Amino acid sequence: MVKIKMWQKPPSRPEPPKSPGLLKRPALTPKPTVQDKTAGNEEASKKATQEILGELDSLIGLSGVKKLVHEIQAFVEIQKLRQKEKLIYEPMVLHMIFKGNPGTGKTTVARIVGRLFKEINVLPKGHLIEVERADLVGEYIGHTAAKTRDQIKKALGGILFIDEAYSLARGGEKDFGKEAIDAMVASMENHKDNLIIILAGYQDEMDYFLETNPGLRSRFPIHITFPDYSLDELMEIADLMLKQRQYTLAPLAREELAKIVAGMIHKHEHSGNARLVRNLIERAMRYQAVRLVGKKNISREDLMTIHKEDLTGALEDI
């Protein structure tokens, strides 16, 4: 028998081991409320909108175009807030006409506008369907309306971009292009909350097109003019294209490119734009490849550098 002195505590019995799962009740994570989800979605949408506008602002040149797109975005946002507060608001008719020469960025901006309108809940998808006369106009009566409706169906939820739209009115009253215009106008009414149409083409031709069909002017209230690029802007575009592909211009090649672009701007009214620069750069890259392919001990610098002869050879192909 164990004797316990009066000042000693009796030995305590060992406690049974606790189950690890019962040591601590796991903290419960509160479920997000509807308000939390809405706020999160709005924050993400605002961030995406700013990123898209940042992409627009990073384009070279086009200051007037950028300014107008920012105005359209701000107008749409404010009209939505006015509607929410039960104030009088303007109906948002956002069909557009893009006027400008080829290679001035019309299609690029149209794609950005589509994505922007998706983020600010103007369009559910925001994709771009690019078509021209041949995609809309058929060869017999009734064929054109069906072809036009098919293209519109593909574009629902986004943007139908009709390049060289003035060609739809070139053949006069008996031309099937008029049937395409009629089908387009009907679809604008039937899908006014689910479709935006952008008509694009040369400025003079688009002005004439609107005069021959006055009813279109009121249906396309937003007109954006895309100016030709300056020589400095085209050289900046060339540098950006080369940088993205990890190429660079030798000093004599830079002088030659500036001379070529300046000459084309002066000689051809509709040639001095980004498309010309892209064609020159891409062809020069191929000429450089032909020049290097049989060479021994090709260095990293060789692989990256475009020389004057590469550009002169490319120019002969254009």
Automatic annotation (TrEMBL):
CDD domains, per the entry: AAA
KW tRNA processing (keyword) present: no
Record-linked Pfam families: AAA (PF00004), AAA_lid_6 (PF17866)
Keywords, alphabetical: ATP-binding, Nucleotide-binding
Every AAA+ ATPase domain range: 92-228
Sequence segments annotated as region (Disordered): 1-46
Molecular-function GO terms, alphabetical: ATP binding; ATP hydrolysis activity
InterPro entries referenced in this protein's UniProt entry, alphabetically: AAA+_ATPase, AAA_lid_6, ATPase_AAA_core, CbxX/CfxQ, CbxX/CfxQ_RuBisCO_ESX, P-loop_NTPase
Protein's UniProt keywords contain Disulfide bond: no
SUPFAM superfamilies: P-loop containing nucleoside triphosphate hydrolases
PANTHER family attached to this UniProt entry: AAA-TYPE ATPASE FAMILY PROTEIN / ANKYRIN REPEAT FAMILY PROTEIN, AAA-TYPE ATPASE FAMILY PROTEIN _ ANKYRIN REPEAT FAMILY PROTEIN
Family: Belongs to the CbxX/CfxQ family.
Name of this chain's protein: Stage V sporulation protein K
Source organism of this protein record: Desulforamulus ferrireducens
